[in-house]
Amino acid sequence: MLLTLVLTAGCARNPNVEIVGSYFPGWMISLALGVALTALAHLLLRRQGLLHSVGHPAIIHPALVVLLTCLLWLCFFA
Question: Which of 1, 13, 46, 48 minimizes the number of CB atoms within 10 Å of its CB?
Answer without folding.
Answer: 1
